[in-house]
Amino acid sequence: TSDARDYLRRERIEILPGSQARPERYRLLSGGFVEEKPEHMTHLNAEILVPKTHPRIRFRGKMDTLEAELILCQQIPGAPEGALGEILDFARKILRCDVLEEPLGQDTLCGLTQAEQRKRSHMPQDSYGQPHFMPQAADGSVIAGLNRVRCFARSAELEAVEAFSDREGNLIREDIPKALNRMSSMLYLLMIQEKGKL
Fold first, then answer.
1. In which region does residue 68 sit, left (phi positive, over 0), alpha (psi from -120 to 50) or beta (all else)?
2. Tens-digit pLDDT profile for residues 25-49
3. Considering the domain 54-197, what is its CATH architecture?
4. What is the per-residue pLDDT for 17?
5. In this structure, how many other beta carbons lie within 10 angstroms of the beta carbon of residue 55?
6. How confident is the model at residue 150 (pLDDT cuts 50, 70, 90)?
7. 94, 11, 114, 57 alpha-carbon torsion, rounded to 10°
8. Cα–Cα distance measured from residue 94 to residue 60, given in angstroms and rounded to the nearest whole number
9. What pTM was estimated for this model as a whole?
10. Cα separation of 21 and 2, whole Å?
11. Delimiting residues of CATH 1.20.1200.10 domain(s) in the chain
12. Over the stretch 61-74, which tens digit does the pLDDT of each residue have?
């Protein structure tokens, strides 16, 4: 369909003929090759296979879980579906940029620049009339769901720091851990906004 072609073009996905779609052999991170893809291995990128325990593959698993949690949170009656949808799109963009090894780049999230978001998350009372708080069961299912997703975003951030650090602990890619930190802060701001409605 034309929609499918537009999607492939927009996402820069190339369809290869069957003869080119499967490589004759797979390259390993060590520099070696295998003829068949073992079940315990997966693609780090289009060219290299790694064990499924590789830090970047574990990170991708955390991102899959985060996406699922965002979708579940959107199902809670009264949840901010639009904001959660934008955050879900951002999570998918993060994962795509990892897989394709592209720079992330994102100016705003839920209408806020990074500087605006930082200011609001440090002083929420100034922007929302609601101070920092610790969520409780009495706050309801929307805040509980947002807090759960925020925790999954934090977990993905920690996995990203490990996946994108060198042996000395220096980040070799800062944009993805930073984006996940920003995402969890945005989820906290959504919690603040919901708390202000109670």
1. alpha
2. 888 888 788 888 889 988 888 888 8
3. Up-down Bundle (1.20)
4. 65
5. 15
6. very high
7. 10
8. 10
9. 0.84
10. 23
11. 54-197
12. 999 999 999 999 99
If you search the block for the tokens 């996905």, which residue do you land on? Answer: 13
DSSP secondary structure code for residue 64 in this structure: H
Q: In the β-sheet with 26-28, what is the strand arrangement from edge to edge?
A: 33-34, 26-28, 48-51, 41-43
Q: Residue 116 corresponds to which tokens in the numbers above?
A: 């605006």
Distance CA 123, CA 81 (A): 24
Residue with tokens 């701001």: 189
Distance (Å, whole) CA 164 – CA 181: 14
Confidence category of residue 3, pLDDT binned at 50, 70, 90: confident
Per DSSP, the three-state class of 51 is strand
Cβ atoms < 10 Å from Cβ of 132: 12
